[in-house]
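pasting Deazaflavin-dependent oxidoreductase (Nitroreductase family) for the record, 156 residues
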Amino acid sequence: MNLVRNLAVKFGRQEWFAKLGRKLVPLDVKIQQRTKGKISVSELLGLPALLLTTTGRKSGQPRSVPLLFVPYGEQFIVTGSNWGQQHHPAWSVNLLATPNAQITLRAKHFPVTGRLVTGEERAKVWSEIVKVWPAYNTYAERAGTREIRVFLLTKN
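structre below
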């Protein structure tokens, strides 16, 4: 691990880091859209990131969000941690309503299908994603009774 990634992982569990992260999301979306996915804030921190574009369940419009991911065979693990807030992120509700989405990863675009992971399979993929971002365990504690949604994205 590089120094920047080590610091990000160290501070990732702090409340101030989550607040800062929430504020950086719109900027990260713009950066990724302008650079066609070549640059992202997360990747500058040494973390794997993709841009997920879902269809708004009410508006029908495309909605993009930067997410940390973990490769899982030919799939991608993503979580709806919402930085540990008490409510699910909008993108996860959109993905449940319309599982077909698109990701931008290192300047390449892929159509994907999202699937909510539950039960034993969720526990297995959760253990994989917290290896990359241990703060997800802290976010799960902060979320209270809300179980953080975990999705597998499969290229179409």
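The chain has one domain: 3-155.
Residues 3-155 form a domain with the Pnp Oxidase; Chain A fold (CATH 2.30.110.10).
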